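Bit of a strange request maybe. I'm writing a small parser for structure token strings and I need a real example to test against, not something I typed by hand. Could someone generate the tokens for this chain?
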Amino acid sequence: MITQENLLIHELIGLEATVMKSNNEQIMSISGTVVDETKSMLFLNTINGIKKIPKENIEWKFSFGNNESIVNGNLLTKRPQERLGVKT
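Reply from user aminoacidic:
Good idea to test on real output. This should exercise your parser:
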């Protein structure tokens, strides 16, 4: 079960995500469902198609169930399997 405490070590694909703060005003308030991720990017399925957005230097809001959590994107900048603690 995803909670605010374990969000960083959980799978992000399938969660609703919104850009809350960014130095790039063009991506402010973009939201959608996370469909893929790499070490430095999240891929969101938005109403305007798939958007690639960097994780770093962005404040993200993730929605899961009836809960929301705000996360500093710098904490997410690892390969998904490294962040999840999976041995490769």
